[in-house]
Automatic annotation (TrEMBL):
E.C. numbers: 3.2.1.4
Protein name per UniProt: Endoglucanase
Organism expressing this protein natively: Streptomyces plumbiresistens
Reaction catalyzed: Endohydrolysis of (1->4)-beta-D-glucosidic linkages in cellulose, lichenin and cereal beta-D-glucans
Region (Disordered): 678-698
Keyword Cell membrane: no
Residue ranges of every copy of the Glycoside hydrolase family domain listed in the record: 275-738
Family: Belongs to the glycosyl hydrolase 9 (cellulase E) family.
SUPFAM superfamilies assigned: E set domains, Galactose-binding domain-like, Six-hairpin glycosidases
C-alpha cells in the first residue's frame, strides 16, 4: 500500500497535507522519527544556531533571541543537520512555534545542509504570540544523508523572540492527498437565473453521448426536460463534460433543481431579486474596508470595530506618515481610504482601478439605456452619509478619493504633483489583527508615474461626476488631476520597485503607456480640451488590440479608457471606431464563452489562471456588457448575464465565489479582521465579498501544500491562509459591483 502511493507521488516534488489542527497521528509501524531531541526536555543539543542567535531552553521549549537588521531569512537560523531522506518517501514535518511580538514569520524548511542548499519543502507561517501547531506532508525528491531541518528567522528590521517545540520529521507516513468536495456533478448558477435570460448548466460525466435532463420546481414537479450536449474534455478542469441549456423555461420561482445522469444539482431561483441584493451587498463591502473611521454596528450588525490607523496606540496612526528612509523628508496625513484587501495597506495604483470601476458603475447608470442611478442612490447602502442627498455610491467612493488626493506630493517638493505609489506597514503582520491593533510603523513609498496617472484619471473622472453634487470638490479634484498629469509628463518612467514587497504588495508595473492613455481620456472626457484629445489620439494604445484573454486589471488599464471613450458622450474624432473596437473585443469574449463548456468568457493562455481570475472573468463580462450598452444587441446582454453563472457556482468546484450567495460559497477569504476561521470572535467576510479565485501560480504555502499540480479551475481553496487564491480586494469587489449592477438592470 505504502509503496504504491509512494510511486505515484514521486511524480511531484512535494505533496501537501493538512496544516494546523491535525489529530495526533496514529503512528503506523514503519513511521520513523528522523529528528533528534525535538522536545527540548533537558537540552538544546544537537540543534545549532547561527552565531547571531542565542538559543536556550525555556519552559521545555527552545527559545531563540533573533536580532533585527539582517537582510535574508537565512541570516538568522536554528537547525539540525545529518538527517537521512529517502527519495519518494513521504514525511510529516510538524512543530509548534510562537513569536513575540506578533507579526514575525519563520521560514521552516527541509533541505540540504551543504551547497547548493536545495530546499525540498518550505513554508513560511506568520507567528503569533500565543503560538500554533503546524503539520505538513511532503515527499522527498532525493536520497541524501545530509538532510536538514531549518527554521530561518532573519530578514526583519526588528529583533524578536522565537520559540519552538515538538519538532518532528516522521518518515514513512502515508501522504495525504487533498480532494475538494465538489458535490453533485450537475453544475448550476446556485443563486439565480434571470427569467428572460440565458439558463445554462454543466454536467460532469463519463458518458460520451447525450443524456436526458429534467428541471424540477420546488415541489419536485418536472417543469421542463431536454437533452445534454456532450462537450468532450474541458481543458479548464480536465473533466469530461456536457452542457445543458434550459433557457426556454422562463417562469419565476425559487428552489428549482436540475437533474441529469442520476444527479441533482444544487438549488437555484429564477428571478431578479438576488441581483438587486447582490448589487447592494457588493457595494456595501467598501464601508467595512474603510480606514480611519469606526465601523458602526447599527449600519453593519456584527461588523462594528474601532477606527483603524487613527493615532490611537498601538496604531502609529496615518496622520503624519513618513517616507521610507531616503525617500523624502516630509510626512503626510494619509488617513482615510479603504484597506486594499485582507492587509492594512493602502495603494494608489489599486485604489485607482477600484475607484474608476465604482464611479463607472454610477456613470453607466447615468448613460446606459438600462441604467437606473437611483439603485445605488442616496439611502441605498446604509453608510454614515446616507441621507445627505448625494448618491451613496459617490459618498462611498469619496472616502477613497479623499485619500488618493492626500497621497499627492505637496508643492515645493522635488516631485510635487506626483503621487506616492503606496503606504503600508514596515513589516508583514499576522492574522488575525484588527486594523486598530496594528502596531507597525507605516511608511510612504516612492512616488511612481503609474500612481500619479491613477490619481489623474480618477480625479478627472470624479470632477465630472461630483460636479452636480459638490462643485467645490469637483474643482479640487480637477485641479489635482491636472497637476498630476503635468507631473507624470515630467517624470514619465518612475516605476515602482518590483522588489518592494515587504509589509505590503509591490503593485509593480513597468509600462505606463496605458495609464497615460487612461488619464488623458478621463481628462478629455471631463474638460473637452484639445490637448488631452491630442494625447488620446496620438497614443499607440488608442488603436491597439487591448481586449486580450486575461482581462484588464490594476496593471493593464487601457480598457478603462477605451470603455469610457466609447460610452461617455464626447466629440472625440473617430469615436465610432472606438465603439466598434469594444464590440470587436466583446465578440472575441463571446466566442470564448461559447467555446467553454463552463460558459465563462475566459480562456487564458496555457490554461494558466491568473491571480484574481474571478475578477478578470467579470472584467471580460464588463466588455461584453458594454457592447450591449453600445449596440443594444441581445447576444451581448445574454453573454454578460451568463458570465455570472460561473462566479455563482457553475464551475468545476461547484461553489459560488461570493460570500453568502449560493448553497456552497467562499466564506474564509484571507483577511486580518474577517478572521472567523481562525477565531470565532471575528466575523466572516460580509455577504457580497468576492474571492480572488483559481490562481495557477499558487504562491502561498497553504495552497502549495494542497493544490500542487492543480488544473486551471481547481487551483483554489477556501481557506484563510491561501492569500494567493482566496483573498478579497477592493479591485475585485468593484468588478462584482459593476456586473451585479448590470445584471440587476436587465431584470
Ligand atoms: O492582485 C495582485 C496581483 O495581481 C499581484 O500579482 C500580486 C503581487 O504583487 O498582488 C496582488 O495584490 C495584493 C497586494 O499586493 C496586497 N494586498 C492584497 C492584494 C490581493 O492579493
Amino acid at each position: 500500500m505504502k509503496r504504491r502511493r509512494t510511486a505515484l507521488l514521486s511524480l511531484t516534488a512535494l505533496i501537501g497535507a493538512a496544516l494546523v489542527g491535525l489529530p495526533a497521528s496514529g503512528a503506523a509501524a514503519d513511521e520513523v522519527e528522523q529528528v533528534k531531541n525535538g522536545t527540548f526536555d533537558t537540552t538544546t543539543a544537537p540543534w545549532w544556531t547561527t552565531s547571531n542567535v542565542t538559543a536556550a531552553l525555556s519552559d521545555g521549549q527552545l527559545c531563540a533571541d533573533v536580532p533585527g537588521g539582517t537582510a535574508n531569512r537565512w541570516d538568522a537560523a536554528v537547525g539540525q543537520n545529518d538527517l537521512t531522506l529517502v527519495k519518494g518517501e513521504s514525511y510529516r514535518f510538524a512543530f509548534t512555534a510562537n513569536g513575540s511580538p506578533d507579526g514575525h514569520a519563520v521560514r521552516a524548511i527541509v533541505g540540504l545542509s551543504a551547497a547548493p542548499y536545495d530546499t525540498y519543502f518550505e513554508v513560511t507561517p506568520q507567528l503569533s504570540v500565543s503560538g500554533n501547531s503546524y503539520s505538513y506532508t511532503f515527499t522527498s525528491p532525493v536520497d541524501t544523508a545530509q538532510g536538514q531541518v531549518g527554521f530561518q528567522l532573519g530578514g526583519g528590521a526588528d529583533p524578536f523572540r522565537f520559540c519552538m517545540d515538538d519538532v518532528s520529521l516522521l518518515g514513512g507516513v502515508p501522504p495525504e492527498v487533498y480532494e475538494p468536495d465538489t458535490g453533485p456533478r450537475v453544475r448550476v448558477n446556485q443563486v439565480a437565473y434571470l427569467p428572460a435570460g440565458p439558463k445554462n448548466a454543466t454536467l460532469v460525466t463519463s458518458a460520451t453521448t447525450k443524456l436526458p435532463w429534467e428541471l424540477k420546481n420546488s415541489t419536485g414537479a418536472v417543469v421542463a426536460r431536454g437533452w445534454t450536449v456532450p462537450r468532450g474534455t474541458d481543458a479548464s478542469s480536465g473533466q469530461n463534460v456536457h452542457s445543458i441549456d434550459f433557457g426556454a423555461y422562463k417562469k419565476q420561482g425559487t428552489g428549482f433543481t436540475l437533474v441529469a445522469d442520476g444527479e441533482t444539482g444544487r438549488p437555484f431561483d429564477i428571478g431578479t431579486g438576488a441581483y438587486e441584493k447582490l448589487r447592494l451587498d457588493a457595494a456595501k463591502y467598501y464601508y467595512t474596508q474603510r480606514s480611519g473611521i469606526a465601523i458602526r454596528d447599527d449600519l453593519r450588525p456584527g461588523y462594528a470595530r474601532p477606527a483603524g490607523h487613527v493615532d490611537v496606540p498601538p496604531n502609529q496612526g496615518d496622520s503624519a506618515v513618513p517616507c521610507q528612509p531616503g525617500v523624502c523628508d516630509y510626512t503626510l496625513d494619509v488617513t482615510g481610504g479603504w484597506y486594499d484587501a485582507g492587509d492594512h495597506g493602502k495603494y494608489v495604483v489599486n485604489g485607482g482601478i477600484s475607484t474608476w470601476e465604482l464611479l463607472s458603475t454610477h456613470e453607466r447608470a447615468l448613460t446606459a439605456r438600462t441604467g437606473q442611478p437611483a439603485k445605488l442612490g442616496d439611502g441605498s447602502l446604509a453608510i454614515p452619509e446616507s441621507g445627505n442627498k448625494v448618491p451613496d455610491i459617490l459618498d462611498e467612493v469619496r472616502w477613497e478619493l479623499d485619500f488618493l488626493l492626500k497621497m499627492q506630493v505637496p508643492d515645493g517638493q522635488p516631485l510635487a504633483g506626483m503621487a506616492h505609489h503606496k503606504m503600508h506597514d514596515e513589516q508583514w503582520t499576522g492574522l488575525p489583527l484588527l486594523p486598530s491593533d496594528d502596531p507597525q510603523k507605516r511608511e510612504l513609498h516612492p512616488p511612481s508615474t503609474q500612481a500619479t496617472l491613477n490619481l489623474a484619471a480618477t480625479a478627472a473622472q470624479a470632477a465630472r461626476l461630483y460636479r452636480p453634487h459638490d462643485t467645490t470638490f469637483a474643482a479640487k479634484a480637477l485641479a489635482a488631476a491636472r497637476k498630476a498629469w503635468t507631473a507624470a509628463l515630467a517624470h514619465p518612467e518612475r516605476y515602482a520597485d518590483p522588489n518592494d514587497g515587504i509589509g505590503g504588495g509591490a503593485y509593480a508595473d513597468s509600462d505606463a503607456t496605458d495609464e497615460f492613455y487612461w488619464a488623458a481620456a478621463e481628462l478629455y472626457l471631463t474638460t473637452g480640451e484639445k490637448a488631452f484629445a491630442d494625447h488620446v489620439l496620438a497614443s499607440p494604445v488608442h488603436t491597439a488590440d487591448i481586449f486580450g484573454p486575461l482581462g484588464y486589471d490594476w496593471a493593464r488599464t487601457a480598457a478603462a479608457a477605451r470603455l469610457d471613450l466609447a460610452t461617455v458622450p464626447s466629440r472625440l474624432p473617430g469615436r465610432d471606431k472606438v465603439r466598434q473596437s469594444v464590440i470587436k473585443g466583446a465578440d472575441r469574449y463571446l466566442a470564448t464563452l461559447k467555446s467553454q463548456a463552463y460558459g465563462m468568457p475566459y480562456a487564458p493562455a496555457d490554461n494558466l489562471y491568473d491571480w484574481g481570475s474571478n475578477h478578470q472573468i467579470l472584467h471580460n463580462a464588463v466588455v461584453i456588457a458594454t457592447a450591449y450598452d453600445i449596440s443594444g444587441a441581445s447576444k451581448y446582454r445574454d453573454g454578460a448575464v451568463q458570465s455570472m453563472d460561473y462566479i455563482l457556482g457553475r464551475n468545476a468546484l461547484n461553489m459560488s465565489y461570493v460570500t453568502g450567495y449560493g448553497e456552497v460559497n467562499s466564506h474564509n477569504q484571507h483577511s486580518r479582521w474577517y478572521a472567523r476561521q481562525l477565531d470565532p470572535r471575528h466575523p466572516a467576510p460580509p455577504d457580497g465579498t468576492l474571492a480572488g479565485g483559481p490562481n495557477s501560480s499558487i504562491q502561498d504555502p497553504y495552497a502549495q501544500s494542497k493544490l500542487q499540480g492543480c488544473v486551471g479551475q481547481f487551483c483554489y481553496i477556501d481557506d484563510i491562509q491561501s492569500w494567493s487564491t482566496n483573498e478579497h480586494t477592493i479591485n475585485w469587489n468593484s468588478a462584482l459591483t459593476r456586473m451585479a449592477s448590470f445584471v440587476a438592470d436587465q431584470g
